[in-house]
TrEMBL record:
Recorded GO CC terms: cytoplasm; plasma membrane
Role according to the record: Involved in targeting and insertion of nascent membrane proteins into the cytoplasmic membrane. Acts as a receptor for the complex formed by the signal recognition particle (SRP) and the ribosome-nascent chain (RNC).
Binding site for GTP: 104-111, 186-190, 250-253
SMART domains, per the entry: AAA, SRP54, SRP54_N
Keyword Ribosomal protein part of the UniProt annotation: no
Organism: Coprococcus eutactus
Any one GO MF annotation of this record: GTPase activity
Reactions catalysed according to its record: GTP + H2O = GDP + phosphate + H(+)
Recorded topology in the membrane: Peripheral membrane protein
Protein name: Signal recognition particle receptor FtsY
UniProt KW keywords: Cell membrane, Cytoplasm, GTP-binding, Hydrolase, Membrane, Nucleotide-binding, Receptor
Top-tier EC class: hydrolase
Protein EC: 3.6.5.4
Record-annotated SRP54-type proteins GTP-binding domain positions: 271-284
Length: 298
């Protein structure tokens, strides 16, 4: 929890400072609600989620005849937590053979996240394999190889320009032969080329379900937390292209707008699974909504 708090320091510092002002006010009036709203918008919690939280608070204040701003802080924190509860029981690549299709546009931290995930699961005694199915750029393949070395896991790759489905085909064969627990597939995130992307991902899924029916297939989307509401929009667009099972939000250490994770969790029907709070191999944490809210606000 201390590491999470440290990772989110930029957002937390801003929020804590403005919470001191907001909840230190003498009356619950329009100014109070406006200042609270401003704090959430500033942290990129998004308009929709912010409005819901403010409305929820107004209702509670009225129902419980609360007069003191200071008494609202706990209420607010609990209302936010309630906004974020998502059933994530379906998402579990720990106990079954799994293939994780990792998607997201260039630069969001996809390769880094795959490297971090590989290292985490290997450390827990899982057999991990990577597949370099983003064959669009040679650099992407090389970068993934570097992370495979770092995480000390095997990687299946072809040359630049190869058919991504062919990489997946080979990777599935290797995963079966080597009794791999988790196969992490890097994919090209060309969102501007929706039709191709859709076909490519569908083809990969077909190969996996045909050749590896015993495995669980998950699609994990990686979003850059520093891009704020754009990240939310990207997730929406990708969900039109393929089914999404989980979200990773990266670079939350580099922004004062960490409220974006709350907006994403509250507004999409897909659970945030992991968050990136640094560039190093250990800087990926499991996302726990309750803990996250505590780290930002409490
Ligand atoms: P890709 O193009 O999506 O594969 O992105 P990369 O994995 O190459 O990452 C792009 C940049 O973001 C690199 O400089 C990474 O070190 C950086 N990065 C990735 N995740 C994080 C994170 O959680 N925090 C910070 N501060 N930087 C990150």
């Amino acid at each position: 929890f201390a590491r999470l708090k440290a990772g989110l320091a930029k957002t937390r510092d801003n929020i804590v400072e403005s919470f001191t002002d907001v909840f230190g006010a003498s009356h619950i009036d329009d100014d109070f609600y406006e200042n609270l709203e401003e704090t959430f918008i500033m942290a990129d919690m998004g308009y929709e989620t912010t409005e819901k939280v403010i409305e929820g608070l107004k209702q509670k204040v009225e129902d419980s005849h609360i007069k003191e701003p200071a008494a609202c802080k706990e209420l607010v924190i609990n209302i936010i937590k309630n906004q974020m509860s998502v059933d994530d029981s379906a998402y579990d690549f720990e106990n079954k053979k799994s293939v994780v299709l990792v998607i997201g546009v260039n630069g969001v931290g996809k390769t880094t996240t795959i490297g971090k995930l590989a290292a985490q699961y290997r450390q827990r005694g899982k057999k991990v394999l990577m597949a370099a199915a983003d064959t669009f750029r040679a650099a992407a393949i090389d970068q993934l190889k570097t992370w495979a070395d770092r995480a000390q896991v095997d990687i299946i790759s072809h040359n630049e320009g190869a058919d991504p489905a062919a990489v997946v085909y080979d990777a599935v064969a290797a995963a079966k032969a080597r009794d791999t627990d988790i196969l992490l597939v890097d994919t090209a995130g060309r969102l501007h080329n929706k039709k191709n992307l859709m076909d490519e991902l569908a083809k990969m899924r077909r190969i996996i379900t045909r050749d590896y029916p015993e495995a669980n297939v998950e699609a994990l989307i990686v979003l850059d937390g520093t891009t704020g509401q754009n990240a939310l929009e990207q997730a929406r667009q990708f969900s039109n292209v393929t089914e999404l099972d989980g979200i990773v939000i990266t670079k939350l250490d580099g922004t004062a707008k960490g409220g974006i994770a709350i907006a994403i969790q509250a507004e999409l029907d897909v659970p945030v699974k992991f968050i990136g709070v640094g560039e190093k191999i250990g800087d990926l944490q499991r996302f726990d909504p309750q803990e996250y809210v505590n780290a930002l606000f409490a």
